[in-house]
Specification:
This protein has 380 residues and is of the alpha+beta class. The chain has two domains: 2-24 and 39-52 and 142-369, Pseudouridine synthase (2-Layer Sandwich), CATH 3.30.2350.10; 72-134, Roll (Structural Genomics Hypothetical 15.5 Kd Protein In mrcA-pckA Intergenic Region, Chain A). It has eight helices and 16 strands. It has helices at 51-54, 61-67, 88-95, 101-109, 183-190, 220-231, 303-310, 358-369; strands at 2-4, 75-78, 113-115, 118-119, 131-134, 154-157, 161-166, 211-217, 236-244, 251-254, 257-259, 267-269, 277-285, 289-296, 334-342, 349-353. The strands form three sheets. Strands 1, 6, 7, 8, 9, 10, 13, 14, 15 and 16 form a ten-stranded mixed beta sheet that branches. A hairpin with a 3-residue loop joins β13 (277-285) and β14. α2 packs across α4 and α3 (88-95) packs across α4 (101-109).
């Protein structure tokens, strides 16, 4: 790991920029195939949605099996005579071995299984010969690209671009555990023509609990231009971050990032990772926390979060990369505050800023109210 003083201009690493040839269409898996694994570790920018990789890790295997996986076609069957005397859920599991008993029990409890036209009782003894109908729940992936009326904070919009100020808590793109209710679904409702643009025009993302600015392309030509700007490292993105502890001075963290060797839902500084570089400046000090301005020279998954944690200053509130600290905050204290790019049509340099959201601003106000603890002046 290399740590150096002096921040530089930020941009996104071309290795992680999405290809302009991506399409929204994807082959549907077989109704009985295993559900695909959604691994976004190569996404561009400080942008991986944490829930896309760690949703459901607290659930038991049985509960996960009962609620996830591909949808199946409706089934009708007659219980064999050999099922007589078994509990109904056990008899059904024998009749439909392609589904686990836990999953079938969940469908019974949800009223999706009938016996002779009546809702099934999982504990009732089977007689054999009953007519059973099973209606599995719909595949949640079917709604992944559905338009949904979700409020958007539009900072700027024209025929080529939409700049959105994303709130914390909103997932950007559908994925495992978040198949709808995302920014993509909101964009398709706001601008239905985005259905004809790859990924509804999304070219970079933010974590679910990271707030701030994203740009969306309204046309294929605009999307190609924005992707090329990411690849050329000419699109600027600046973040405001509150790190734990007293950061001595501004500097640069130059350390490769890859999958954590044991906690596979998180990232880490690892020798075999991809090159990553983060520049940071001290803005304000609070003694036990430091407000930073961060700029990315590369754009690895969770880059700011991983790099600051690697130098002993994880983000306040970060559940993945920092232990519980004295300063309570419901999410990682990270906000995408500034976005700069060249307009794909006019060629003009454009820049937008986003004020801190209410929760982040209130956190800083509470820290300031405790009394001065030094500031950036004179300390780097």
């Amino acid at each position: 790991m290399i740590i150096a003083d002096g921040p530089r201009l930020a941009a996104v690493d071309p290795d992680d920029a999405p290809s302009p040839t991506l399409t929204m269409s994807r082959p549907r898996p077989s109704r009985f195939a295993a559900a695909p694994r959604h691994d976004h570790a190569g996404s561009a920018g400080e942008d991986l949605d944490a829930d896309d990789v760690d949703a459901g890790t607290a659930s038991s295997a049985a509960a996960a099996d009962a609620t996830t996986g591909p949808a199946a076609a409706a089934r009708t069957l007659t219980l064999p005579a050999a099922a007589a005397g078994l509990r109904f859920d056990a008899a059904l599991a024998q009749a439909l071995p392609e589904f686990s008993r836990a999953r079938l029990r969940a469908w019974i409890d949800a009223g999706r299984v009938t016996v002779d036209g009546v809702a099934a009782d999982p504990t009732r003894k089977a007689r054999g010969g009953e007519a059973v109908a099973v209606l599995p729940p719909p595949d949640p992936r079917d709604s992944a690209h559905a338009a949904q009326p979700i409020a958007l904070a539009i900072v700027y919009e024209d025929d080529a671009l939409i700049v959105v100020d994303k709130p914390a808590g909103l997932v950007v793109h559908p994925g495992s555990g978040n198949w709808d209710g995302t920014l993509l679904n909101a964009l398709l409702h706001h601008a239905p023509a985005l259905a004809g643009v790859p990924r509804a025009g999304i070219v970079h993302r933010l974590d679910k609990e990271t707030s701030g600015l994203l740009v969306v392309a309204r046309t294929l030509a605009a999307q190609t231009s924005l992707v090329r700007q990411l690849q050329a490292r000419s699109m600027g993105r600046e973040y405001v971050a509150l790190a734990r502890g007293d950061v001595a001075r501004g500097g640069t963290v130059d350390a490769p990032i890859g999958r954590h060797p044991t906690r596979r839902t998180t990232m880490a500084v690892v020798p075999a990772g991809k090159p990553a570089r983060t520049h940071y400046e001290v803005v304000e000090r609070f003694g036990d926390a430091t407000l930073l301005r961060c700029r990315l020279e590369t754009g690895r998954t969770h880059q700011i979060r991983v790099h600051l944690a690697s130098i002993g200053h994880p983000l306040v509130g970060d559940p993945a990369y920092g232990r519980r600290g004295a300063i309570a905050f419901a999410r990682q204290a990270l906000h995408a505050a500034k976005l700069s790019l060249v307009h794909p049509v006019t060629g003009a340099a454009r820049s937008w800023t986003s004020p801190l959201p209410t929760d982040f601003a209130a956190l800083l106000a509470s820290l300031r109210a405790r009394g001065p603890a030094g500031d950036a002046a004179g300390r780097g």
